Amino acid sequence: MAENTVVYYGTGRRKNAVARVRIVPGTGKVTINKRDAAEYFGRQQLLDGALAPFKVTDTLGSFDVIALCDGGGISGQAGALRLGIARALLNAGDYRADLKRAGFLTRDARVVERKKFGLKKARRAPQFSKR
Q1: Which structural domain range is residue 60 located in?
Q2: For the chain, N or C: smaller number of CB within 10 Å?
Q3: CA-CA distance, 82 to 58, in Å (whole number)?
């Protein structure tokens, strides 16, 4: 990268995944953990969901994405990447209204419920026997 290149930062979280995102004005190249995004996620559906903020703001292909994702699984990492990209776009331009309307600025607070003692899972009780 050149010395005077403008870089926008955003951090996204989803379940146990964290994505630290940098977006740079460019051609639309997406790199995650130094790998191509299509190769990293494997499924096009995950990649489309992660890049949805660009579609909403009509900026698809005008920014390069460099992201570091860790924790959780690929679905959680795709959600974290989506939030990180949306937050970085906030710094890049006047996109708040579009991103807010699409719901991309809200952190998905759903996480796995903990297992309770005396139960088999979070809510699954052991089989009941009358005798």
Answers
A1: 8-102
A2: C
A3: 15
What the block records as the tokens of 39 is 């190769």
Distance CA 4, CA 89 (A): 19
User: For the chain, what is the domain count?
Assistant: 1
User: Is residue 48 situated within a structural domain?
Assistant: yes
* CA separation, residue 16 to residues 31, 65, 75, 111, 130 (Å): 21, 21, 11, 8, 40
**Domain holding 15: CATH number?**
3.30.230.10
pTM: 0.91
One-letter identity of residue 125: A
User: pLDDT tens digits, residue range 93-115?
Assistant: 899 999 999 999 999 999 999 99
Distance (Å, rounded) from C-alpha 89 to C-alpha 113?
A: 32
User: Strands 30-32 and 63-70: what pairing?
Assistant: parallel
* Structural domain contains residue 122: no
User: 46 lies in a domain?
Assistant: yes
